[in-house]
Structure formats: structure tokens, C-alpha cells
Design a protein that fits this description.
Blueprint: E1 8-9, H1 17-30, H2 34-42, H3 44-67, E2 77-78, H4 92-108, H5 112-120, H6 122-142, H7 148-170, H8 183-214, H9 216-234
Helix pairs in contact: 1-3, 1-9, 2-3, 3-6, 3-8, 4-6, 4-7, 5-6, 7-8
Length: 236
């Protein structure tokens, strides 16, 4: 008697609870929780070099949870769904648009007048933080879908835009409303360090994604740390 074999299908995986929970916890740590937010109000370096990058990281985790992470195992699965790793060059048009939108978003909020306006008003401040979440999600979705050369161009373009800005802050040429004049150099250093960490993260994302997918202990440990940090941020 012949046994029916389920069709081998490609498809998008359903939302991954581990990554989704980690993204939400990281966003709470970086955003409304006191753990980072209060330090960001006191220090421009923490605000620009830590809080905003953590928010972008939370957005990237959220995108991986919904659309599949870098390094996800290749191949169709019998009777199930498996995310096809993005083929470089597939959906390159939307990917270019999203990558550019993410870069522009980050750059716009570093204009001193806009940054000062956001810091002084709760609504635009919240909008700024949400836009960093979106920029991280856009980068996480777009970069794997760009051809390798264009991916390098995006990274170099980000460095070309943010590098001189960070150096101007380091030199004290740029100052930001709501923070003392002496805050800018430390923030410039923090931005330069954060950029290097971000580029290393982009390079290691496929390997990190495979390790994350294979190790339940790693996922649990990271999630527990993030949840505890999120809870600590709301406990007085």
C-alpha cells in the first residue's frame, strides 16, 4: 500500500517565540525601562552609543523572529515549512529602499536640532526610539537580500556617514541640546565603538544565527538575562 508523502514546500516559518521574546525583552530594557533610559537622560554617550543601538538590535531580532534569521538551515522539510535563506539579489529593489531608509533614519536623528527637539518632548522622543527599532528591522531584512557588493556598499556608506559625524562629536564641533558641551566627545567615542561592534555583528550574524538555533541552553540563558534586566528596569 502506497504511503502518501507530504509535498516538499518552501515557505516562511511562523514567528519564533524565542527570538520574539528576546526582541521584546531587549526593547523593554533599552526603551521604557529605567535601567538604560535614566542613564541615557544623564549621558549623551549612553543615549547615542548604547540605547539607540540596543533598540536597533531589538528591531533586528524581531525581524529574524518573523522572517527567519541569518544562517537558518537550508533545504525543504517533508510535510513542513522551512524558511529559505534569502538569495542575494532576490527582492533587491525593496531591500535597497529599506537599507537606505534605515541609514537615513539614523542620520536624521543625529541632526542636533531634531535630536534636541526629540529629547525635550516625550512624543517625538518615543517616535525616535520606535524609528530605531524600525531601522534595525529594516537592516536585518534588507542586508541578506542584497548582492554581496551592494551589502559592502551599504556598510561603507554607513561608515562614511556616521564616521565623520562621530569624529565631529569627538572634536567638540557638534554639541547637542539637553546635554553639556563636554558630553559630545564621550558620545563620539561611544558611537565609534558601537559602529565597530555593529559591523562585527553583521559579519558574524549567520554563524551566530546557527549557534542560536542549535543551542536551547544559549537561548534560555540569553532570554533569562534579558527578562531579568527588563524587570529590573521597572522595579523601583
Amino acid at each position: 500500500m502506497a504511503v502518501a508523502v507530504p509535498a516538499r514546500v518552501w515557505g516562511r516559518v511562523p514567528p519564533r517565540p524565542w527570538e520574539l521574546a528576546a526582541a521584546v525583552a531587549l526593547a523593554l530594557v533599552a526603551g521604557p525601562g529605567r535601567l538604560v533610559d535614566e542613564a541615557a537622560h544623564r549621558s549623551l554617550a549612553v543615549h547615542m552609543g548604547v540605547q539607540h543601538w540596543l533598540l536597533a538590535g531589538a528591531g533586528a531580532l524581531g525581524a529574524w523572529a518573523l522572517f527567519g534569521r541569518p544562517g537558518q538551515r537550508r533545504g525543504p522539510v517533508e510535510g513542513g515549512w522551512r524558511a529559505r535563506p534569502p538569495t542575494p539579489g532576490s527582492r533587491a529593489g525593496p531591500a535597497r529602499a529599506l537599507a537606505l531608509a534605515g541609514l537615513v533614519t539614523v542620520l536624521v536623528w543625529h541632526v542636533p536640532a531634531l535630536f534636541g527637539w526629540a529629547v525635550a518632548n516625550p512624543l517625538p522622543h518615543g517616535l525616535m526610539h520606535l524609528s530605531y527599532l524600525g531601522a534595525g528591522a529594516a537592516a536585518a531584512w534588507a542586508l541578506p537580500r542584497l548582492p554581496p557588493f551592494e551589502r559592502v556598499l551599504v556598510v561603507l556608506g554607513g561608515a562614511a556617514l556616521m564616521g565623520p559625524l562621530s569624529l565631529a562629536m569627538l572634536a567638540g564641533v557638534l554639541t547637542y541640546p539637553g546635554y553639556g558641551v563636554g558630553e559630545a566627545p564621550a558620545a563620539g567615542v561611544a558611537m565609534l565603538v558601537a559602529m565597530q561592534v555593529a559591523w562585527v555583528g553583521v559579519a558574524l550574524a549567520p554563524a551566530a544565527g546557527r549557534m542560536w538555533g542549535r543551542s536551547r541552553a544559549l537561548r534560555l540563558a540569553v532570554l533569562v538575562v534579558l527578562v531579568l534586566a527588563a524587570v529590573a528596569g521597572f522595579v523601583k
